[in-house]
Specification:
Order of helices and strands: HHHHHHH
Helix content: 40-55%
Radius of gyration: 34 Å
Shape: elongated
Number of strands: 0
Structural class: mainly alpha
Strand content: under 5%
Largest sheet: none
């Protein structure tokens, strides 16, 4: 019993720990890798011979910065400048369910998600007379033959009581 609980808590705790560690690493500014001594000598030698190129590389170009400040992105349809603070039509999330229980995207015809499969079995268990395989196939847009095979050979998790083993009638048979 304790081993099972330990496994479950480990499965929950491990992704959370990993996420915390990654966040902690990302908060710090990354340090560049140390340079090999031969590379440092080569860079110092190149700086001595090409001082103008290194100064030009490190110099701030005011003309370029001015052009970048004046640069605007216009919306092709409306002709208005686009800014990062623009309102969007995107809706905010309603609930904070886990991504496993949430359906993503549109399910194509003839296929269902695991959540829909659980709903299908729940409806079938609640009222098998109302939710026949034909009505379920129509509701979930599935092939009737495929759905009848799923209902026949696949089931949701169930608990089955252990059956009693048959006892021999004559104890002398055991020897």
């Amino acid at each position: 019993m304790g081993a099972g609980i330990s496994r479950v808590t480990r499965l929950v705790r491990k992704p959370l720990e990993t996420h915390r560690r990654v966040e902690k690493i990302l908060e710090k500014k990354p340090k560049p890798a140390p340079k090999h001594p031969s590379s440092e000598a080569a860079i110092a030698n190149a700086q001595k011979h090409n001082e103008e190129l290194f100064k030009e590389r490190d110099r701030k170009d005011d003309i370029l910065l001015g052009r970048l400040r004046d640069f605007k992105i216009m919306d092709a349809q409306e002709g208005k400048p686009i800014s990062g603070e623009q309102e969007t039509n995107r809706k905010l999330p309603i609930s904070r369910e886990s991504s496993m229980s949430r359906q993503v995207g549109v399910v194509p015809k003839g296929k269902i998600t695991s959540v829909q499969l659980s709903e299908l079995f729940a409806k079938r268990l609640e009222d098998p007379d109302e939710w026949t395989k034909y009505k379920l196939a129509e509701h979930y847009k599935l092939d009737k033959e495929a759905l009848s095979s799923v209902l026949k050979y696949y089931s949701d998790y169930t608990v089955v009581a252990k059956a009693e083993l048959p006892r021999p009638l004559n104890p002398s048979v055991l020897g």
